Amino acid sequence: MTYSDCCDMFMRASITGTQCLLLDDGLGGVEEYAEDFRWHDRYTTSPTKRIVRVEVVAEKILRDLLRGHEEYAASEQLELVLSAFLDIFERTLAESAAANEVVGFKSVACYRTGLDVEPPSESAEAVLASLKDVAQDFKLTGKIRLAHKALNDLVVCKTLEIAAAQDKPIQFHTGLGDNDITLTKASPSHLQKVIKRYPETKFVLLHSSYPYTRDAGYLSAVYPNVYLDFGEVFPFVSGAGQRSIVQQMLEICPTSKILWSTDGHWWPESFYLGVVQSRQALYDVTTCFLALGALTLPSGFSGLYHA
């Protein structure tokens, strides 16, 4: 069976009911090992859309600015580099937001320096120190990985400003990941400061924020600009765990603030499993709630109908 056959079997709209795909094409290895996002249109009834991973955009800009100028690592020109970086970064994100194929932004700050994002201060000293570290790393390794807190936080906050101005949501990886994450900094509760600071920006908390699902549900309930996406736990968490996550989500999160994704990537089966298992978990939990009288027929079944 070819890869195309697998895609046809597990991703076809007639099988999964998927109308369109929203793809984060900033995942490492996409250019080498994955198809262009438009290629996926053949499996859906509507065009595939992009989600722009902002750390990847920032890293590319810094790489272009520093390439051939390794002396900047020990230079007074870092302020000029920072100014140029911010100008290009803001312009690039604004242009991306205006593109018809882009539906939003995504940050993986959770993986890099944690979700305890601090709003920018008037002093650029910490950011310049971070930029110096980036330049030194690039000089030594030829690679750039944005994992320096002051600079990371600045990138996130600039994105939050642009997302609000362009009326685009921003997704945040929260909770569930791998051993590259500091779990104590993966709770979406750490985002509360910037959620309040940027009330016009739509925050989407990804991956059910597991194991911090209740934290995400709470934030979605008390802040009008916060939404909870209960993806990735299918199939990473056991069936019982999946049902528990859906139950925790429904404890407080308004049903109008609940989103869903498969987190499918690399393997076509991941899209299919995400669809099947999430529907099963939703069915199991909502039918139980209906039997208990905790949900009424309209609210209980509208989510299932659109799933």
UniProtKB/TrEMBL annotation:
SUPFAM superfamilies cross-referenced by the UniProt entry: Metallo-dependent hydrolases
Superkingdom field: Eukaryota
InterPro entries attached to this UniProt entry: Amidohydro-rel, Metal_Hydrolase
GO function terms (MF aspect): hydrolase activity
Pfam family, one: Amidohydro_2
Amidohydrolase-related domain mapped to chain residues: 151-270
Name the UniProt record assigns to this protein: Amidohydrolase-related domain-containing protein
Native source organism of the sequence: Mycena citricolor
Taxon lineage: Eukaryota, Fungi, Dikarya, Basidiomycota, Agaricomycotina
